[in-house]
Structures are given as C-alpha cells and as structure tokens.
Amino acid sequence: MKFEDTYQHKGLRRKLVEKLKEKGIDNQAVLDAINHVPRHLFMDQAFLKFAYEDNAFPIDEGQTISQPYTVAYQTQLLHPRYHDQVLEIGTGSGYQACVLAELCKTVYTIERFRKLYIKSKNALKNMGYRNIKTFHGDGYQGLAAFAPYDKILVTAAASYVPVELKNQLKIGGQLVIPVGSDKGQIMHRITKLKNDDFLDETFSRFKFVPFQHGKVM
Ligand code: SAH
After folding, report:
1. Residue 38 DSSP code
2. Measuring from atom 14 of ligand 1, which residue has the nearest CA?
3. 22-37 burial by CB neighbour count: b if 16+ within 10 A, else e?
4. What is the residue-level pLDDT of the chain in tens, covering all 217 positions?
5. Active site (annotated) includes residue 66
6. Which of 43, 155, 207, 217 to mutate to test the pocket of ligand 1 (most atoms within 8 A of CB)?
7. Which atom of ligand 1 is least distant from the CA of 90?
8. CB of 117 within 8 A of CB of 97?
9. I need a surface site. Which of 95, 106, 107, 116 has the fewest CB within 10 A?
10. All domains of the chain, ordered by start, with CATH?
C-alpha cells in the first residue's frame, strides 16, 4: 500500500475532528490522535470521499471499520495513558489499533479472520507503527502471553463479558466492551478493583458486528 497523506486528507480529518467535538468528544489527546491517523489508508483508495465521513464502512469478510465517533468514544472511555499496555479484540482494518498506538505504549491486537489479520498487519507495518503487535486468534481467550493489561478494548458486540478478559486485566485496569444482542449493545466499562471485585459502569447504546467464537483460516 502506498503511503500518501495529502493536504486534502488532512483538511478532511480536521473537519471530522470538529464534528466529533460537536458530538461530545472532549479528550484533546483522543481528538489529536484522530487528527493524526490517516483513516483513508485503511480503506480502498476509491472510497476516499467516505474515509472522513463519520460512518462505519465495509471491509473484507463482511466486517466493518468502526465509525470514527465510536472509535473516539471507546478510546475516551479507556482513559489512555502513554505507559499503558493495551489489548484490542477485533483488529479489523487496524484503524482503532493505530488510534490507541498514538496514545499508549504498546497495543496488542487480535483478529479472528486470517485475511484481515494479514491485511492489517501489512498496512500497519507500511505506516511505520512499531508499537502495535498483531495476532491471528480467538479474542475470547484474550492473549495470555502478554497479560496482564492496563486496558482491554473489545470492538465487536458481545452477549456476555468473557471471564478470560477480566482475568487478564491488571488491578486498576479497565475493560471497555459493548454488551447486548444483535439488535444493539450498551457500552460497558469494567474496572478491576481487586481480584474478583469489579466495578461495572454503563454508557450509550451502539451497534457493532458480532463477537464470534473461534479463529477463521
Ligand atoms: N477495530 C476495528 C473494528 C473492526 S469490526 C477497526 O478499527 O477497523 C470488529 C472485528 O472484530 C471484526 O474484524 C471481526 O472479525 C473481529 N472479531 C469478532 N470476533 C472476534 C474474536 N473472537 N476474536 C478476534 N476478533 C474478532
């Protein structure tokens, strides 16, 4: 993939950031990250005019690149800090991983579809992100090898909160996960107060593609 980020792209991104501010995103570091990450490079070049609209967009395997507002909202809920080790479930295009990588120390990201894993791995490498580690696997298991994490972000719709993900949080760590049915989900932020003691806060309603079991070759 050719890395090209023109004044036109930058201008469109600034407008997108203004729109996200109007919609209530107020964490300046998150807005700066959105302003910095070239979302058009995660989509087919032919779709440039859609890249900076505040919409989800189809990618391979019937999945989607999340809506920028959703990416900003989930990222803001995670309170990203520069020394955080973050686990993302559902790499998809790799866009959300990049936004996190702008704000945190290391991002580990898992995707169940091999095709998306390969594509996002190459895209992230071409863009020069060295603090993102991509994995092909089943996010229901988390990623025990690098646990525990300061933050875990699930970018697919869960019907329940997998216990493995709670186990892989540090004390004081936080898990942001949309929980519900295929009709819609409520955003949850789960904070690990101590082992087996969690604070569960609920936020707005969203609609994600499903969090499905098993990895796909
Ligand atoms: N964060 C992505 C959003 C992708 S949509 C982005 O910024 O583009 C959610 C992704 O979660 C899809 O790619 C889907 O394949 C993936 N997914 C669903 N269930 C999963 C699982 N069990 N493990 C890993 N990834 C999963």
Report:
1. -
2. 90
3. eeebebeebbebbeeb
4. 456 889 999 999 999 999 999 999 999 999 999 999 999 999 876 677 789 999 999 999 999 999 999 999 999 999 999 999 999 999 999 999 999 999 999 999 999 999 999 999 999 999 999 999 999 999 999 999 999 999 999 999 999 999 999 999 999 999 999 999 999 999 999 999 999 999 999 999 999 999 999 999 9
5. yes
6. 155
7. 11
8. no
9. 106
10. 7-206 (3.40.50.150)
pTM recorded for the entire structure: 0.97
Sign of CA pseudo-dihedral 193, 196, 201, 206: positive
Structure tokens at 91: 């790499």
Work out the angle at residue 140's Cα, subtended by the Cα atoms of residues 108 and 143, and round it to the nearest 5 degrees.
35
Q: Using DSSP, how many helices (H) and how many strands (E) does the chain show?
A: 7, 9
Q: For residue 116, give the ligand 1 atom closest to its CA.
A: 13
Contact at 8 Å (CB) between 124 and 97? yes
Phi, psi for residue 78 in degrees, rounded to 5: -80, -10
Provide the residue type at 35 as one letter.
N
Q: Kindly give, in sequence order, each residue whose CB lies less than 8 Å from that of residue 115, ignoring residues fewer than 6 positions away.
A: 60, 61
**DSSP characters for 123-169?**
HHHHHT--SEEEEES-GGG--GGG--EEEEEE-SBBSS--HHHHHTE
